[in-house]
User: What shape does this take?
Amino acid sequence: DVQLVESGGGLVQPGGSLRLSCVASGFTFDGTTMGWIRQAPGKGLERVATINWMGNIPKYADVVKGQFTISRDNARNTVYLQMKPGDTAVYYCARSSSHWAFDNWGQGTQVTVS
Assistant: This one.
């Protein structure tokens, strides 16, 4: 079974930074584009970033460009999101099925900006 386990969320002050991690299992990680999506209170899911299997082509939603950096370590089956969050949201690690589409995601990690 596909498993995606996020960690690294928490409380951050405005202008502060966090690094989220996601450990993946149950599929061929180093052949799969991975990404992050988020959901702010009272809002729908929002795509944040993706990174191709080689880790050399990151893509970002316009709203987070310059503030977030996605990366991966295929030896550790882990994808990261270095971020300077502007808003409170739950962040989910996700497996990409096609361009900006995802077919599995984790339980999420809460990021609170206050």
